User: Fold this.
Amino acid sequence: MVDVGDKEKTQRVAIATGRVRMSPAALKKIRSNTVEKGDVIGAARIAGIMASKRTPDLIPLCHPISLSGVEVEVKPSKGAVEIRATVKTVDRTGVEMEALTAVSAAALTVYDMLKSTDRGMVIEAIGLEHKSGGRSGLWSRGKENNR
Assistant:
């Protein structure tokens, strides 16, 4: 495990996104809230938040850190459910892994709740979109002037 003891505590934010591609029938069930297992969007949001808090239990050598905020958005769109997680802390290390874990768990929850309707769903495009704070500063996907 990397020693972060000499690092300053700073405000840190990470945003990750991903999606679950699915059939029109599965999307219709989400939109009409007729999934047998219940509220897919609500369950996926809670799963993402809970998973972000358990990241050090899932990812080897990941530091346990105090999270000051976790927001998980789950929205049906054309042909998919889009997921976005924003995680914040004031600590000595970043929250990129917590944001990515939140998106992954939310996506897996969507899959689990709809697998009886569509086993061909695809979890895809999970990635970091933005991080700020710490020594490396600001990074955003698609920006050429990341420092």
